[in-house]
Design brief:
Chain lengths: 325, 443
């Protein structure tokens, strides 16, 4: 064989090897976490291993639309994951445990199902006592009806209620606030000389005294990011996904493994006074922590801190009460 | 305008006669092609950031339809990497002179397939699935790989470049439109070929291989089936092969009489019109139908696509030329007069392609730095934002292309009608209506 033929064959073989080998080599050495809409698989992989005290470097890319990445119960800003782009994230864990990471962008009907876990190993340096959530210690049935038998004719005003409460020395401790529905408190005020409308105003004021402007602002932000897609910006259960959720019903869930018995439902309307004034903060905490158990309402226990949930609840009551000063 | 023989220039002649420059280009193209397959299969599924989609369907297509075909005819075929592995396997060599004993089966392609109907079908298959093919990297990777393996398979069964000549989905229209290009490969003196013994340009010799495109250069009158592989320049013992610069559309002066080529013109014209309406138009339902491959709406879209190309457009054309009676049969007049649709179709494709190429060209810059979507930034352009280019030029350029195409096709119609001795008016009216429709769809 002539030398030129030999060299040509070598160059072709080398070029082919390079064209095949180089992409495969770099691809195999760049482990990516892929984000896809939940219907198409969600996060892949959805379980990540990490160690306490050892920074976790991850590269995430989106295979379809814009997603977001955040880790529940951690102080971190959510990061956008853009289609076809790679985002580098470094996480540090100081406590072992199972953390939940989740999508923070409304990427589709099953957006809230985009969750994964980070299993952080290591010895706990400072074990913390764990107490059950309030709804468990109160033994509340989260699925029992809790409608208020009576609702106000107009939206109760905290500012009107303030003078009435001060005049009549009416207060509400935080413990009572957490364990009573607005209607419970309204009912307990029946022995006063106040009219029904005034009693509701006082309830609005008492609810306001059990929160702060900072809590409400934080709750509002959390609500806008995590709840408004379904429950609507104004709490009316008319978020951008609401119609699709109701229309999709069972069919939308059948693509998800192990979820065929579930049934999407129209999101709860937080402006529904009968429902909301009959619910105590402890009950709402349970619903948020646990989720709707097959209704399409996700469980947020692994995502929100306790403080965040109370802030969120305080904000949700703002759909019932006029808190303006 | 007279022809200018480019091969008179020693640099060009030597560059074409030597195998090494071509081999260097081949190796680079093959590496790029294989990389595109790999990128499609393992790179990001996001088409706008994947090398396979961005470089094949935006960069390559732009070069092909806006530069290569109009100015170099089958210039792309001259450097296309798809037939190379099969051809090297078939020859058992890359550079060495041909072995006297044929490798593999070396069968002749059956006569019934020696036309471009298979290319018409393969193009339509890709066209019907184009919305998915053009946006889904792994589908693009699979199709690119399938073409490579099909070419290898055909090379082991049939003689010469059977894939290029009879099956390649793009080879058919490149051949059709190459007739308009200002470049050609032709013999210098017919008498030399008549008296040439052994016809090494077709049968091969120690100097090189017989025409891979199954063409006898001595009989070349149009570009359609000459792949510009330059093998005949190497094998001709009489230095009788020339590459010429010539006026545009010189081949169209002698209209074709073949129905496969006539329908190719309708396929290309119809596809450009349908794409302009479906992919660039404001009708979401059409777009959804085209994208939801396999759905009921897609089947309706596919049926409509084929009906427009094979029934509506040819029927209207036939109706137009019915009264142009002369001694030739309607079929012959149909085939000859459809020559006028060749420049028109080419300019329709130029106008259509300008839209999406200028809109999406900025993806090329980002994909260069991160071709696989692995987070690389090789040239610091990975985060270049998407931005349509030369938007103010788009509408004037498209108008120029379409109106220019109409004038060009009218002139071609005059020549074709003169050849078959009928009036060109119906064909010109047909071209005018088609151009008006295209202008309305694009602007």
């Amino acid at each position: 064989m002539k030398r030129s033929e030999l060299i040509s064959r070598f160059l072709i073989a080398a070029g082919t090897l390079l064209a095949v080998g180089a992409p495969l080599f770099f691809w195999s050495r760049t482990p990516l976490i892929h984000a896809r809409m939940a219907e198409d698989g969600g996060w892949n992989p959805d379980v990540i291993q990490a160690e306490v005290g050892k920074p976790l470097h991850i590269k995430i890319t989106s295979d379809d639309v814009v997603h977001g990445f955040a880790v529940g119960q951690m102080e971190m800003q959510s990061v956008d994951i853009l289609p076809g782009k790679v985002t580098d994230i470094t996480l540090n864990f100081d406590k072992p445990g199972i953390y939940t990471f989740f999508c923070t962008r409304w990427c589709g009907l099953n957006h809230w199902r985009m969750r994964g876990t980070i299993e952080v190993s290591g010895s706990p340096s400072d074990p913390e006592p764990v107490s059950p959530p309030l709804y468990v210690s109160l033994d509340l049935d989260l699925d029992a009806p809790h409608e208020a038998p009576l609702i106000p004719a107009t939206q109760p005003s905290a500012i009107n209620g303030q003078s009435l409460a001060v005049t009549n020395s009416i207060t509400l401790s935080n413990e009572d606030y957490l364990t009573h529905s607005p209607y419970d408190v309204f009912a307990e005020l029946k022995n006063t000389s106040l009219t029904e409308s005034q009693r509701w105003d006082v309830v609005a004021y008492l609810w306001q005294t059990n929160t702060t402007p900072e809590s409400l602002a934080n709750g509002k932000e959390l609500y806008a990011e995590n709840c408004a897609a379904c429950h609507g910006e104004n709490g009316a259960g008319d978020g951008v996904f609401a119609d699709d959720l109701a229309a999709a019903g069972e069919s939308s869930m059948q693509t998800m493994e192990g979820a065929v018995d579930m049934m999407m439902q129209t999101p709860v309307d937080f402006t529904d006074s009968q429902r909301m004034l009959g619910a105590s903060p402890a009950l709402l905490q349970g619903k948020i922590l646990r989720g709707g158990m097959g209704t399409g309402m996700p469980m947020w226990g692994a995502i929100f801190t306790e403080e965040q949930i109370w802030d969120l609840i305080a904000y949700i009551y703002a759909f019932q009460f006029d808190y303006q000063h | 305008m007279a022809k200018i023989e480019l091969t008179r220039i020693p640099f060009i002649k030597n560059a074409l006669k030597s195998r090494y420059p071509q081999l260097a280009v081949f190796i680079v193209m093959l590496i790029g092609y294989i990389f595109a397959i790999l990128a499609g299969l393992i790179g990001t599924p996001v088409g706008s950031h994947n090398f396979s989609i961005v470089f094949v369907w935006i960069a390559w297509w732009a070069i092909l339809i806006l530069v290569a075909v109009p100015f170099f005819g089958r210039g792309w075929c001259a450097v296309c990497p798809i037939p190379l592995p099969g051809e090297w396997l078939q020859r058992g060599a890359v550079l060495s002179p041909p072995d006297k004993r044929p490798k593999w089966l070396n069968l002749r392609v059956p006569k019934m397939f020696r036309n471009i109907w298979l290319q018409n079908i393969s193009f339509l298959l890709l066209a019907l699935f184009s919305s998915v093919l053009l946006t889904t990297p792994n589908i693009t990777g699979i199709v690119l790989a399938a073409m490579l393996f099909a070419a290898i398979g055909l090379s082991t069964v049939f003689e010469r470049r059977a894939f290029c000549r009879y099956l390649c989905p793009v080879g058919g229209f490149i051949g059709l439109y190459s007739q308009t290009a200002p470049i050609e490969l032709r013999i210098k003196d017919k008498q030399v070929c008549v008296t040439c013994e052994g016809k090494p340009c077709y049968n091969g010799s120690q100097a090189g291989y017989g025409c891979p495109w199954d063409v006898f250069p001595g009989g070349l009158t149009k570009n359609t089936y000459c792949g510009l592989c330059m093998e005949c320049i190497r094998t001709c013992p009489h230095d009788n092969i020339a590459v010429n610069l010539r006026p545009f559309s010189a081949d169209l002066a002698k209209p074709s009489t073949r129905m496969d080529e006539a329908f190719k013109a309708f396929i290309m014209l119809g596809s450009a019109i349908i794409y302009a309406g479906v992919l660039l138009g404001p009708w979401g339902a059409f777009k959804d139908a085209a994208y939801n491959v396999g759905s009921g709406a897609w089947f309706i879209y596919a049926a409509a696509f084929l009906a427009i190309i094979f029934v509506v457009l040819p029927s209207l054309f036939t109706l137009g030329i019915l009264n142009t009676k002369n001694t030739l049969s309607l079929k012959q007049r149909f085939a000859s007069l459809s020559t006028a649709l060749i420049p028109l179709g080419l300019m329709f494709w130029v106008a259509f392609s300008l839209s999406f190429v200028l809109t999406n060209a900025s993806y090329i810059i980002a994909a260069l730095s991160d071709p696989l979507g692995l987070g690389w930034d090789l040239f610091g352009t990975a985060n270049a934002t998407w931005q349509p280019m030369l938007t103010s030029m788009l509408a004037p350029a498209q108008t120029l292309a379409l109106v220019g195409g109409l004038i060009w096709s009218a002139r071609t119609a005059q020549k074709a009608a003169g050849e078959v001795k009928v009036s060109p008016i119906p064909v010109i009216v047909y071209c005018f209506i088609a151009t008006s429709l295209m202008l309305w769809l694009l602007l």
